Amino acid sequence: MTNNKNDHLLEKKISRRQMLKLTGVGAAGIAIGASGMGGILSTFGKDWLVEDDDSTAKNKVNFYGKNQPGIMTAAQSNIYFASLTVLVKTKEELKQLFKDWTPLAVKLMNGELVDQTTNEMVPPKDTGEAMGLDAKNLTLTFGVGPSLFEKINFGDKKPKELKKLPHFPKDQLQEDFSDGDICIQACADDPQVAFHAIRNLVRAASGRVSLKWAQAGFNAIPIKNGKVETPRNLFAFKDGTENPKSQKDADDVVYLQSGESKSWLTGGTYLIARRIQMHLETWDRTALDEQDATFGRHRDSGAPIGKKNEFDAMEIDRKDENGNYIVPETSHVFLAKSVKARMLRRSFSYASGVIDKTGSHDAGLLFISFQKDPQQFIDIQNSLGRLDKMNEYITHRGSALFACFPGVKKGSFIGEALFNTL
Ligand code: HEM
Fold this sequence. Notes:
The chain contains eleven helices and eleven strands. The strands form two sheets. Strands 1, 2, 3, 4, 7, 8, 9, 10 and 11 form a nine-stranded antiparallel beta sheet that branches. A two-stranded antiparallel sheet has the order 5-6. It has a domain at 4-29 and 58-140 and 179-267 and 407-419. The two termini are 37 Å apart. A hairpin with a 2-residue loop joins strand 5 (223-224) and strand 6. It is an alpha+beta fold. Helix 2 crosses helix 3 (91-109). The longest helix is centred in the first third of the chain and has 20 residues, at 4-23. The structure holds protoporphyrin IX containing FE. Protoporphyrin IX containing FE binds next to strand 7, helix 9, strand 10 and helix 10.
């Protein structure tokens, strides 16, 4: 009986050997320039792309699956989020880019360098800063923005939901933190591993994409008695308490099911990123009971106001003896919960220096939500509208929407269903 794992390795070896023979080089790497990987991969087609994900790397998340990693995956401590502008002009060239990225993404998520070969005469093919680190639970999540469909002809494959989000009251959006043709979300339990992944994917696509905007973010994840707790945002509130937790929840709220949108998105989802500045200086002058009233939860325990524990039911209809709502009607949670829509929130804090030389922190939340329809976000954001007490303390500075592909099957490549037209 043949061993599958070895079959894969053999296939890989043959492909490499073929490649060397055909390029006429004696050692892997010579004559392959810094951005040459793409060209070589294009020459050798799909065989080269056969990858083995039976890696036993430490702290790794599987790349392959029904849905992409980095969505329902337990949140890691760091993110490096990149929004890219596409420079190629045709669907074929873009398809090749995603084909080229696929084996690199597998390697990166397995904690491997994108290429191990070294040659002193040329720049190293992997930038190297993740050497000696394990996979650190790296996840890579790929999506496409509405603007991509204006640049590249995909026929009728653009879903009607994939369009710029509407303007919301109090939005002060900056182009520098908004939109993009492609997104890559890299999350890991190490900032350098997340950054390394984006750096190497962008480098391998040199001349085919350029960085539009990027944002690093972090979360501190407390562990108590061996149990992972909800991280706190920069207002010190537990953030992520009420979220879909089961696969059924995820299928209802997050992942598109067959027939719910264009078929290439079955198993996919919409990612919304909002760079939200949090005015820490104003917040730090606010009394604790006012802070609790802003969210509708107690800061320290995370419990709904009037209750003890973080996961006690948030019953917004509860009233006191005078008939007043116990959870204030203008609180963030009251308003977020007043509409039917739900979403998966997977946000990270950021601190990016000083804003406009005012001496204030440029810090806040890289809010990221996943939902099967952007309307879920729109409904909740409209409910928060002008009423949300938290508005006094935040300003939305950036906004982007991407349709994230379904997961990748072994032997396939990222986004295959979008490119392979019927
Ligand atoms: C800086 C901006 C924001 C901060 C600091 C923030 C913080 C929080 C906190 C502390 C909670 C309560 C704990 C939890 O369930 O996670 C919460 C809940 C929630 N937030 Fe936000 N949030 C922000 C922006 C947003 C935005 C833009 C949306 C969507 C448009 C949103 C939607 C929600 C939802 C749906 C809940 C759960 C409500 C429920 O209990 O059902 N948040 N947020």
